[in-house]
């Protein structure tokens, strides 16, 4: 946001105009091509795509995105796009399970990064062929890091070399949402802080400075009761400390769980230290989820919100902080260090975004139509529109070029995503993630009911329990 | 026997088939599923999943799940939650019913107000409770703090208090069920009984002891039984009210089954929990059938 301010509006407009012209041209070409009969084979057909229901603060923007994709898809193929929605992760699972067992259902299924292992393990999704990738502009036109999460290798292990020919990619990514630090520029200014923190030491110091200068405001929001954020924080911090690499919480062969390393213990402890040691997170935040944390930020009660995404700008519209929102990459040097410790990975985000997979029961002409849908959602026109509407970062080189022309602010986020690291794709991940979540929930409860006093042996026993429970299913 | 043959028993065929498909087949499948090692990899061909015997049951009872609790804990919490709710709401519901049994001005309005908690969908109640029980800023903490009962900083949604927050919410939302049943029971008592007792010079206490209590006894037992069964299977409240996964105090049996199936994709374990739940609920179900004379069979 701050970088947008420093950018010449006229230049932006000119760039936007040329991108729009380019995009329109692409659109027109597509329409003309359809009119020429190339896509007439799809006319009159309907493609059903399963995706998340528009909800929350970005509901209207999400709906507008769905409508736009449907319109472009129809122009390009002559077919009708029907969105089928799930309203929660559990409903998503139920829909996928139903499709898996019955061998029928939506022709394209959308899924987030945490679902890779699950979808692969069902054996119901066909890896994309070279012909499929060529139809989408070739693998080389996509952001390389996204392939980590889009599939597994021939042995069913998480991909560590995305360019290997043996890799089986089951999904096409359409957007990424690198995690960033949202911060209140006004509070930073009032506290005399020139730039957002780049290390966790700086984040703690900035939080303390802001609390000292701005009355009634806490430095940072934590959300240990959230269904996602707590394990993601551990995930980054553990890697920065040089412990198990994030993809090694589960060993590459999916047989060994590594949740009890010294670095992991430190990662868990540091997250809560923001509250019980440095006192820059409100005591109430021990019972917060991400909605509570976001709300506290939007009401100006906290100065920083960890694990926001660029799309968060849509949510703060109309709130007291709408003109004070700044984004920065997450700190990448652990607390107590001036530089990365030996073996540390400067991870600022995981590979996170949305993919579309085609179930095996979709064959023939319908499969081609599903690929045409993939082509639509990664086209520059849609990539620009999704950024405008939702702040979703593009995934293809032409898309990145088009969006950066409109909003250069996306560049650091794209760079962060290019260096992103994935979670394990092993099926046992379905035990690891909730296991770490339970650890964080229980530690939050413990602190809340024991006078904010950290108990390392209790934390160790919790991690041990999560390790044992997951190991039993590895 | 002769008369039995004369009855058109064949007309029960559609109902029997429906019960077979809707009830018996799922029950048998669930029991079979609980004996298999069905996970995300074997779900597609689940009938061919490795036979696991009673291992799913053994694991559930002996090994803490990823959420850190065993099946014993979930059974304990479910029993405590359902029985305590019934024990608390029964006198509340009865008193409410007595209070609006006799005619008075505005009785209709009071009766409607009494029903409000019961008409609110459970997920709405749970969402509201989530706000009401927020630490520090929630209504409960504010009231308790203002009254000096607590310091106004109790964590209701996490830790050991979570169970009590859930319990209180369930009591608030469900007492009208007992109220409705009691009121129906009261209204079913024939006026002649009261008139006869008045002619006999019975006191108020005697009327309660010899007319109301015996007449209400059946419907009240039934209400308590149904109430316990309903609370035992309540999934929505704990699922919506707390974080995911919920705190141990909210690890009810349906929650445990849900997380095993839809978070861990361990459908065998989830089916085992479902079977245990079913066996536990067979007891009150049998009592219910006996009390409504459904278990007597043809005579």
Q: Keywords, please?
A:
heterodimer, A: 474 residues, alpha/beta, D-Maltodextrin-Binding Protein, domain 2, five-stranded mixed beta sheet, four-stranded mixed beta sheet, disordered N terminus, B: 299 residues, mainly alpha, MetI-like fold, 68% helix
Map the helices and strands.
The complex is a heterodimer of chains A (474) and B (299).
Chain A: H1 2-6, H2 9-35, E1 46-52, H3 59-77, E2 80-86, H4 89-102, E3 108-112, H5 116-122, H6 130-135, H7 146-150, E4 151-152, E5 168-169, E6 171-176, E7 180-184, H8 185-190, H9 200-213, E8 218-221, H10 229-240, H11 262-276, H12 290-298, E9 302-308, H13 312-316, E10 325-329, E11 353-357, H14 364-377, H15 380-390, H16 397-406, H17 410-418, H18 429-449, H19 456-471
Parallel strand pairs in A: 1-2, 1-3, 8-9
Antiparallel strand pairs in A: 3-11, 4-5, 6-11, 7-9, 7-10
Helix pairs in contact in A: 2-3, 2-16, 3-14, 3-15, 10-11, 15-16, 18-19
Chain B: H1 2-6, H2 13-33, H3 55-62, H4 71-99, H5 107-119, H6 122-132, H7 139-146, H8 161-188, H9 191-199, H10 204-232, H11 236-241, H12 253-262, H13 267-291
Helix pairs in contact in B: 2-13, 3-13, 4-8, 4-10, 5-8, 6-8, 8-10, 10-13, 12-13
Task: Give an account of the 3D structure.
The complex is a heterodimer of chains A (474) and B (299). Chain A has 474 residues and is an alpha/beta fold. Chain A folds into two domains: 2-177 and 352-418, Periplasmic binding protein-like II (D-Maltodextrin-Binding Protein, domain 2, 3-Layer(aba) Sandwich), CATH 3.40.190.10; 180-348 and 428-471, 3-Layer(aba) Sandwich (D-Maltodextrin-Binding Protein, domain 2), CATH 3.40.190. Helix content of chain A is 47%, strand content 12%. Chain A is built from 19 helices and eleven strands. Chain A has helices spanning 2-6, 9-35, 59-77, 89-102, 116-122, 130-135, 146-150, 185-190, 200-213, 229-240, 262-276, 290-298, 312-316, 364-377, 380-390, 397-406, 410-418, 429-449, 456-471, and strands spanning 46-52, 80-86, 108-112, 151-152, 168-169, 171-176, 180-184, 218-221, 302-308, 325-329, 353-357. Chain A has a five-stranded mixed β-sheet with strand order 2-1-3-11-6. The longest helix of chain A has 27 residues, at 9-35. In chain A, 51% of the residues are buried. The model of chain A is unreliable at 1-38 and 149-166 (pLDDT under 50). Chain B is mainly α and 299 residues long. Chain B has one domain (2-291): MetI-like fold (Orthogonal Bundle), CATH 1.10.3720.10. Chain B has 13 helices and no strands. The longest helix of chain B has 29 residues, at 71-99. The relative contact order of chain B is 0.14. Chain A binds chain B through residues 90, 93-94, 97, 100-101, 118, 121-124, 225-227, 283-284, 286-287, 289, 427, 430-431, 434-435, 437-438, 441-442, 444-446, 448-449, 462, 465-466, 468-470, 472-473, and chain B through 39-41, 43-44, 46, 59, 63-68, 134-137, 153, 155, 157-162, 243-245, 247-248, 258-259, 262-266.
């Amino acid at each position: 946001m701050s970088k947008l301010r420093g950018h010449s509006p006229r230049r932006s407009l000119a760039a936007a105009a040329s991108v729009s012209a380019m995009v329109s041209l692409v659109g027109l070409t597509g329409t003309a091509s359809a009119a020429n009969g190339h896509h007439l084979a799809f006319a009159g057909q309907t493609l059903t795509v399963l995706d998340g229901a528009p909800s929350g603060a970005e509901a209207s923007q999400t709906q507008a995105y769905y409508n736009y994709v449907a319109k472009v898809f129809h122009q390009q193929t002559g077919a009708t796009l029907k969105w089928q929605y799930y309203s929660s992760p559990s409903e998503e699972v139920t829909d996928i399970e139903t499709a898996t067992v019955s061998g029928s259902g939506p022709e394209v299924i959308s899924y987030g990064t945490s679902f890779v292992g699950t979808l692969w393990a069902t054996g119901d999704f066909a890896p994309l062929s070279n012909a499929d990738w060529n139809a989408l502009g070739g693998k080389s036109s996509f952001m390389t890091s996204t392939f980590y999460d889009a599939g597994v290798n021939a042995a069913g292990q998480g991909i560590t070399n995305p360019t290997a020919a043996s890799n089986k990619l089951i999904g096409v990514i359409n957007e990424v949402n690198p995690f960033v630090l949202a911060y209140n520029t006004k509070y930073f200014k009032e506290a005399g802080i020139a730039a957002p923190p780049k290390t966790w030491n700086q984040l703690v110091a900035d939080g303390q400075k802001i609390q000292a200068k701005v009355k009634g405001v806490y430095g940072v929001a934590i959300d240990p009761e959230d269904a996602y954020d707590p394990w993601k924080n551990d995930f980054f911090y553990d890697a920065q400390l040089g412990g198990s690499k994030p993809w090694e919480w589960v060993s590459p062969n999916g047989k060994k769980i590594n949740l009890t390393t010294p670095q992991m213990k430190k990662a868990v402890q540091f997250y809560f230290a923001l509250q019980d040691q440095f006192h820059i997170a409100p005591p109430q935040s021990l019972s917060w989820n991400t909605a509570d944390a976001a709300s506290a930020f939007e009401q100006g009660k906290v100065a920083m919100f960890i694990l926001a995404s660029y799309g968060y700008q849509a949510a703060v519209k109309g709130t007291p902080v709408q003109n004070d929102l700044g984004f920065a990459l997450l700190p990448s040097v652990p607390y107590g260090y001036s530089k990365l410790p030996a073996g540390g990975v400067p991870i600022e985000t995981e590979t996170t975004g949305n993919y579309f997979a085609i179930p095996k029961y979709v064959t023939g002409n319908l499969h081609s139509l599903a690929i045409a849908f993939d082509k639509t959602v990664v086209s520059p026109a849609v990539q620009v529109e999704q950024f405008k509407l939702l702040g979703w970062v593009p995934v293809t080189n032409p898309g990145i070029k088009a969006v950066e022309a409109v909003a250069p602010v996306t560049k650091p986020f794209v760079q962060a995503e290019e260096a992103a690291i994935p979670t394990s794709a092993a099926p046992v991940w379905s035990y690891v993630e909730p296991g770490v979540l339970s650890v964080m929930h229980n530690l939050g409860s413990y602190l809340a009911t024991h006078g904010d006093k950290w108990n390392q042996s209790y934390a160790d026993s919790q991690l041990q329990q999560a390790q044992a429970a997951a190991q039993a299913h590895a | 026997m002769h008369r039995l043959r004369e009855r058109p028993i064949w007309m029960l065929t559609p109902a029997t088939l429906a019960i077979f498909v809707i009830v018996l087949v799922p029950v048998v499948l669930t029991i079979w599923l609980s004996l298999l090692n069905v996970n995300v990899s074997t779900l597609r061909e689940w009938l061919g999943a490795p036979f696991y015997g009673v291992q799913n049951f053994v694991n559930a009872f002996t090994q803490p799940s990823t959420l850190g609790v065993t099946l014993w804990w979930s059974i304990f919490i479910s029993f405590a939650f359902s029985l305590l709710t019934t024990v608390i709401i029964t006198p509340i519901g009865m008193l409410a019913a007595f209070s609006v049994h006799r005619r008075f001005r505005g009785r209709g309005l009071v009766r409607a107000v009494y029903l409000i908690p019961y008409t609110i969908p459970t997920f709405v109640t749970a969402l509201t409770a989530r706000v009401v029980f927020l630490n520090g800023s929630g209504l409960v903490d504010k009231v308790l703090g203002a009254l000096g009962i607590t310091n106004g900083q109790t964590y209701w949604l996490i830790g050991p208090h979570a169970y009590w927050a859930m319990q209180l919410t369930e009591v608030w939302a469900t007492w009208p069920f007992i109220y409705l049943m009691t009121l129906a029971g009261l209204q079913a008592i024939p006026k002649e009984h009261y008139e006869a007792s008045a002619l006999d010079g019975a006191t108020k206490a005697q009327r309660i002891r010899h007319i109301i209590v015996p007449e209400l006894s059946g419907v009240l037992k039934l209400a308590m039984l149904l109430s316990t069964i309903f609370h035992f299977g309540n999934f929505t409240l704990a699922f919506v009210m707390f974080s995911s996964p919920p705190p141990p105090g909210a690890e009810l049996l349906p929650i445990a089954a849900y997380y095993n199936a839809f978070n861990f994709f361990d459908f065998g374990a989830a089916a085992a929990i479902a079977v245990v739940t079913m066996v536990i609920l067979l007891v009150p179900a049998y009592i219910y059938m006996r009390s409504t004379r459904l278990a007597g069979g043809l005579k």
